[in-house]
Hints:
- The chain has helices spanning 40-44, 105-134, 147-168, and strands spanning 24-39, 53-66, 69-82, 85-101.
- By secondary structure, it is an alpha+beta fold.
Amino acid sequence: MAEDQNAAPTQPSQPQPTQPQPPRLNVLAQYIRDLSFENITAQKGNAQQGKPEYKVQVGLDAKKIADKRFEVAIKLKVDAAVAETPIFILELDYAGQFMVDNVPEAQMHPFLMIECPRMIFPYLRRIVGDITQDGGFLPLNLDSMDFLNIYRQEVQRRAQAEAANATIS
């Protein structure tokens, strides 16, 4: 076969500029760090009367444990009551260990406090449902949580606390 005479001459390959790498997030482990379930109704020998109302509080915590490795925890507290009579209290710290790479330092804190909790929340939700059911109640299925909004509220709360401390000093 004859070579293609219309082929473009080959040029030496030019080095390509390095492309920024996308953030990488790997879940290394997930675990219950602390769990407490207090069944007030059973302790008092009462039967639950009516539909419970739930007060849910959520906190987030993150710490570096090694190079590119972080532990992020969701701290959940659920107070359940019927007509202002407490029926149970559930406190759960659910944590995950993550390998995080290619995230700029300035964006690391929001990344840890938003993306990591999103990854482990479905497992926390399942645990809450199991614990409440095993405690003798209908399983509590937590609503989805907006971790971006939770993060923004925490940043705002800390800024207000710092401003209040600055005016006191």
